[in-house]
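REQUEST FORM: STRUCTURE PREDICTION
Request ID: SP-0412
Submitted by: Lab K.M.
Chain count: 1
Length (residues): 302
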Amino acid sequence: MPTTAFNPEKDMPDMSGKVILITGGTAGLGAETARRLAKQSPAHIYISGRNAAAADKVIQQIRQAGSKTVVTFLKCDLASLDSVRHAAERILTHESRLDILMCNAGIMAVPPGLTTDGYEIQFGTNHLGHALLIRKLLPLLETTAAAADVRIIILTSLGYKFARGMNFDEVRSVQEGTLGSWMRYGRSKLANLLYARELARHYPALTSVSLTPGVVNTGLVENLGLFNRAFVYLTTLGQVQKTEEGAYNQLWAVSAPKNSLQNGQFYEPVGVLSNKLSEAAKDANLARQLWEWTEDAIKAYL
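STATUS: Completed
RESULT:
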């Protein structure tokens, strides 16, 4: 359950005029976040994903709830850098501002595989696809930040603790092994956390944070195989939240006063600055290596 009295019905400000992009906004936490934010009357919400039918359902739900906010489906496959590039360019073509970029989409403990570009599927989807999206949209985010409070919110997970470090020579392989799917997931989530910190260092005018929603009963868990699903539930007894509660931390990160957020830091539900980071998560040198490696990996798409 949420650990503070945060109530999105009462504690979220009016968001008139703001433009928001939520990756993975067609289902689960992303859809719940879009539905909640639409109640605050932003000018435009983009929900990205691969499933147009699922997006249409979310858009209809928002309209039926009485929101006048424009909601648009943005087709984007994070496992394809070319798809990410086209999605970002669509935003750059159609928008003169972007106030909130929420990197919500992700995959968890999936079987071994590679992205379209040959990267380990979880690392490529959860980190590299989002990194390219962020980098492509940075000029628009910076322009907006000249006169507005701009935030980049990256969802990670306490699963980052599965990773004791990061071997960049391995990210172009499937990395099989005992509990390999969780180790791969952990590396991708560690990358999310470290990348948010580096964004804050390189672009201090923007507010960039990482956060975990906690353990949430969404398709991300329910779509796992029997062993992995049991692993999640047995290791998180009494901690599983409903989807609407699971979205609280990212809604808090959108709506909390700017001066209450520490740029580049990691937050647990709800709005709790984490003081229990692993050694890898505190490794500034590893964060810099990740930034440099990522820049090189995506440079052809910028």
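NOTES: Residues 10-296 form a domain with the Rossmann fold fold (CATH 3.40.50.720).
Reviewed by: T.R.
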